[in-house]
Design brief:
Elements: E1 5-11, H1 15-26, E2 32-38, H2 41-50, E3 55-59, H3 69-78, E4 85-89, H4 96-102, E5 107-110, H5 116-149, E6 153-158, E7 163-166, H6 168-174, H7 178-181, H8 193-206, E8 208-216, E9 222-233, E10 239-248, H9 250-264, H10 274-290, E11 296-303, H11 306-313, H12 315-331, E12 338-343, E13 346-352, H13 357-371, E14 375-377, E15 380-382, E16 386-391, H14 400-416, E17 422-425, H15 431-446, E18 452-461, E19 467-478, E20 482-484, H16 486-495, H17 499-519, E21 526-531, H18 533-536, H19 541-552, E22 559-564, H20 565-571, H21 573-584, E23 588-594, H22 601-606, E24 611-614, H23 616-619, H24 626-641, E25 645-649, H25 654-662, E26 667-669, H26 679-690
Parallel strand pairs: 1-2, 1-3, 3-4, 4-5, 16-17, 19-21, 21-22, 22-23, 23-24, 24-25, 25-26
Antiparallel strand pairs: 6-7, 6-10, 8-9, 9-10, 11-13, 11-16, 12-13, 14-15, 18-19, 18-26, 19-20
Helix pairs in contact: 1-5, 2-3, 11-12, 17-19
The chain binds ligand C2E and calcium ion (2 copies).
The site of ligand C2E has 22 residues, from β19, α16, α17, β21 and β23.
Length: about 700
């Protein structure tokens, strides 16, 4: 402060006092005092208005009939003067000191007790204090400005929770004027009374709070806000209230909702997507575990031939169609049910509380029925159908994925059974059914995973005991279940139409294997392949066989098809055409499993069979049952008159063999001779028998020439 000039105005009616003051000031060395002096109130006011002074010293007594120094003090402050004022009192001016301070004086000094150092200190402190006050005031102005201009709502309250501050943003959002809410409880701004209690208690207790709170406007409308609140303290660190900053998060929540919606819905149809479906399914499943009575079903729906529609009408129309279908599906359901689009033309439906068989079936039927009405799209009438798989008792499962897997599997089954229908999966029905369906799924991949193998069972000539043919018997080397016999999976393959692939593979493999044996020098071996009814009913079968034979280089007469009697009976008209085709290609045909059921010797007359195989159920009886042996004998005789060779299947005992020999049966097959075995074993078998070559070329097929 050393060189600082400080201008002081002394207002005192007594010149002696002025002189004393001047003396005292002259002793001050820490700063440079410049003292002015006026005697009267009016002269003082005139000077004060010019604002030239840094400090005022007012004598309390300003002479007879004059105002007091305190009155001058009041008026000085009223003019807006910010400079510190020090009151000088006499020794007897009781209580003036306190009053002076209350009215805004910075200090008071008692005349007669003043020395220069006291005066210096008093003035210096007064100036410093004033500066500090100014700083605080401007800071206060600044924070008030911030509060007023803040885009966030700012609300403060005292410890009694009465509102003390309510900024313009708060006014705008809540719809209250500041004056309406000042002094009222802050709780009026909360949407929920419980929440208001909890939150305010928390702020008071923990001194700080932040979180999402619903607020209520004057209109009653509720809006979500983010509140950060804390305790307010005064300079002495005493708690005086709470202040909260609020931000309206309606828009933010809307955006979040939108994002969430997008994550859980299919954008094309607006239906729930797989995620949402799985979530609901999981919730239902959990609920079902706690609640015995809850039940639900899941339908998995796949449109039939949708790809054709899509390809022929274009993707845009395909999309429109999906939207229409989504609408129709919705209309078939109750509000509480969920229909979701899994992408493509797949939909899944969740039926809550379906307690009996009827409901899920009923919904499926209604959907299929509704879909029968054609859709009109860009002037075209389009009919779509769907295949639906149903899991009736979803609540019996442990995992949502398993329910969907089974619904998907039975949907596939519905497709295989001819589309536009539903099929039901019910885990209660059977663990076996689960097995079956799992097997069905596995079977779809068996070929590509090279799990199928062919065993070959030799057929021997009864005249020479030589192996003349081998029957191909397919097996499935399942990675978990081991070797599965055809009786277990061929019916499955037939039901799912996998039989086409399986059958084609067997023919291909058997022909290639036989060609290999021929190349090794066993050129009189015929390979036979069993053909199922469904395979046989395919018009393209002869062509397929032709291609395989050509590609493998096997001669057509070293290959023979085994067709069961029942297949022949059930194929009726078609069979003749196929037989003609096969005949043209010189493919030989064997009637398999002869003698069970149909006994249609008649068909043998009309169809170009070269061989017939008597079923093992008849053969197994011949040495014990005279009827059976008589039948077998007559079959052999009759076949011979038709120039058809006979194979006895399932020969297990020497007695059976003896009888068959006596009946002039041509060939035999059975455990008495050989079991079905792998190709390598057949190869070594053939190698052994070659050591005793027979000149008589015997071939079950070559002896017969189709007419
Ligand atoms: P199948 O045509 O009657 O075939 C003969 C079945 O009897 C074979 O069973 C064979 O292992 C068995 N067998 C052979 N000798 C004896 C014997 O002395 N005693 C007894 N008890 N059984 C004997 P496998 O291999 O289990 O085949 C069962 C059926 O599966 C076959 O009956 C055939 O209809 C079908 N199958 C086999 N492979 C194929 C194939 O590639 N395609 C089609 N469509 N069906 C096939
Ligand atoms: Ca057979
Ligand atoms: Ca048989």
């Amino acid at each position: 402060m050393n060189n600082t000039r400080i201008r002081i105005l002394l207002v005192d009616d007594d010149e002696d006092d002025y002189v004393i003051a001047r003396e005292l000031f002259s002793e001050i060395s820490t700063w440079k005092p410049e003292l002015d002096w006026v005697k009267t109130y009016d002269a003082a006011m005139e000077m004060i208005r010019t604002r030239q002074h840094d400090v005022y010293l007012f004598d309390y007594r300003l002479g007879l009939g004059e105002h007091t120094g305190l009155e001058l003090l009041r008026e000085t402050i009223t003019t807006g003067c910010k400079a510190p004022i020090i009151i000088l009192t006499g020794q007897g001016d009781y209580r003036v000191d306190m009053e002076a301070i209350r009215k805004g004086a910075s200090d008071y000094l008692i005349k007669g007790q003043i020395n220069s150092s006291l005066l210096e200190k008093s003035i210096r402190h007064a100036i410093e204090r004033k500066r500090a006050e100014e700083a605080i005031r401007s800071a206060k102005n600044y924070s008030e400005y911030l509060v007023a201009c803040s885009l966030d709502m700012i609300v403060a309250a005292n410890l009694g929770l009465e509102i003390t501050e309510f900024n313009p943003s708060a006014e705008k959002m809540f719809g209250y004027c500041k004056s309406e809410v000042l002094g009222k409880s802050i709780r009026m701004l909360f949407a929920d009374a419980m929440e208001s209690k909890q939150v305010t208690e928390k702020i008071l207790k923990e001194k700080i709070f932040s979180g999402e709170i619903n607020k209520r406007k004057k209109s009653g409308e509720i809006f979500p806000s983010f509140l950060s609140a804390s305790i307010l303290k005064d300079i002495n660190d005493k708690e005086i209230g709470i202040v909260g900053i609020l931000r309206d998060i309606t828009e933010r929540n809307r955006l979040i909702d939108q994002l969430r919606y997008n994550a859980f819905h299919d954008p094309l149809t607006n239906l729930p997507n797989r995620n949402l479906f799985m979530e609901r399914l999981e919730r239902l499943l959990e609920h079902a575990k706690r609640n015995r009575n809850s039940a639900f079903s899941v339908l998995f729906l796949d449109l039939d031939r949708f790809k054709v529609v899509n390809d022929s009408l274009g993707h845009l129309s395909g999309d429109k169609l999906l939207i229409l279908i989504a609408q129709k599906l919705r209309e078939c359901l109750r509000r509480s049910d969920t229909v979701a689009r899994f992408g493509g033309d797949e939909f899944a439906i969740l039926l809550d509380n379906v307690d009996d068989h009827f409901n899920a079936k009923f919904v499926a039927e209604r959907i299929l029925e509704t879909l029968k009405d054609p859709f009109v799209l860009d002037g075209h009438k389009i009919v779509v159908s769907a295949s639906i798989g149903i899991v009736i008792k979803g609540e019996l499962y442990n995992r949502p994925e398993d329910i969907l897997r089974d619904a998907d599997t039975v949907m596939y089954r519905a497709k295989m059974l001819g589309k536009a229908r539903y099929a039901i999966f019910n885990i209660e029905m059977h663990a076996h059914a689960m097995n079956f369906l799992q097997l069905e799924t596995d079977l779809r991949h068996a070929i590509e995973r090279s799990e199928l193998v062919i065993y070959y069972q030799p057929i021997v000539s009864l005249a020479t005991s030589e192996i003349v043919a081998v029957e191909s018997l397919v097996r499935w080397q399942h990675p978990q279940r081991g070797l599965i016999l055809p009786d277990e999976f061929i019916p499955l393959a037939e039901e799912t139409r996998e039989i086409d692939k399986v059958g084609y593979w067997v023919i291909q493999e058997a022909c290639a294997q036989n060609k290999a044996w021929h190349d090794m020098g066993f050129s009189n071996i015929t390979v036979t392949v069993n053909i199922s009814l469904l395979q046989f009913q395919r018009k393209e079968l002869p062509e397929q066989i032709g291609t395989i034979i050509k590609n493998t280089g096997l001669s057509a007469d070293a290959f023979e098809l085994e067709i069961t009697e029942s297949t022949v009976m059930e194929s009726k008209g078609l069979v003749l055409e196929i037989f003609k085709e096969l005949n043209k290609m010189k493919i030989h045909l064997m009637m398999d499993d002869f003698g069970i059921g149909f006994s249609s010797i008649n068909s043998l007359k009309h169809l170009p069979f070269s061989t017939l195989k008597i079923d093992r159920s008849l053969i197994s009886d011949i040495d014990t049952n005279p009827d059976a042996s008589a039948i077998v004998k007559s079959i052999i005789d009759m076949a011979h008159t038709l120039k058809i060779k006979v194979i006895a299947e399932g020969v297990e005992t020497p007695g059976q063999l003896e009888l068959l020999r006596s009946y002039n049966c041509d060939y035999a097959q059975g455990y008495l001779f050989y079991c079905p075995m792998k190709a390598e074993e057949i190869t070594s078998l053939l190698r052994q028998s070659k050591k005793y070559p027979s000149e008589k070329k015997s071939n079950i097929t070559r002896e017969f020439s189709p007419s």
